[in-house]
Amino acid sequence: MQKGSRKESASMIEKKINSLGGYGLFASQIFLPGTLLFTEKDWYADIALGGWEVHSIEEVNRFPESEKEMFLKYSFDLSFGKTMGTFSENHVHNLTNFLNHSCGPNTQFDGQDNIIAKGTIYPGDELTIDYGSFVVNFDQSFQCFCGTSHCRSRIKKEDWKVLSLNPENKFPKFLSEAILLSNQIPV
Ligand SMILES: [Zn+2]
């Protein structure tokens, strides 16, 4: 891991209200393709503070609807079947929680659990990632208005299968490994 460059990059990213009225992350400097923006240490920093839980798909589906929605809001999948999330915004601190979705993103995972610049990112640009590249357990409840020519509108838990056909797309470690061993993926 390029720890030094990550620290430098992270200080050049700001959390601000975006055009849709929610929080988003914005670059305050140029980032060239491949620049390391976040490592797994960034989101595990929140988990170390407590209040985050791992649940199976079946467990999450048994939560009351409002609890399920809150749990999934900042959740991320650890594997096929297991998702980490929290029931309170009080446990949400790290910048990585506010990285919004786009169907034409300017960041992506790197095949490990780091997030890198996918294209050139200019000062003032909102940082985005394709949620379909790491979501495998639950369809997303929001509708996408990213405005890109390939906008899929709804983000589904199966989107990674199509995204994996393009060798330029990269995924978190668990999903990269599953794609490599595709005969072991549950269908
Ligand atoms: Zn979209």
Automatic annotation (TrEMBL):
Annotated GO biological process: methylation
UniProt xrefs under Gene3D superfamilies: SET domain (2.170.270.10)
Keyword annotations from UniProtKB, A to Z: Membrane, Methyltransferase, S-adenosyl-L-methionine, Transferase, Transmembrane, Transmembrane helix
SUPFAM superfamilies, sorted: SET domain
GO molecular function term, any single one: methyltransferase activity
InterPro entries reported in the protein's UniProt record: Flavunoidine_N-MTase, Post-SET_dom, SET_dom, SET_dom_sf
All copies of domain Post-SET, residue ranges: 140-156
Transmembrane segments: 20-38
Name of the molecule in the record: SET domain-containing protein-lysine N-methyltransferase
Species: Leptospira idonii
Lineage: Bacteria, Pseudomonadati, Spirochaetota, Spirochaetia, Leptospirales
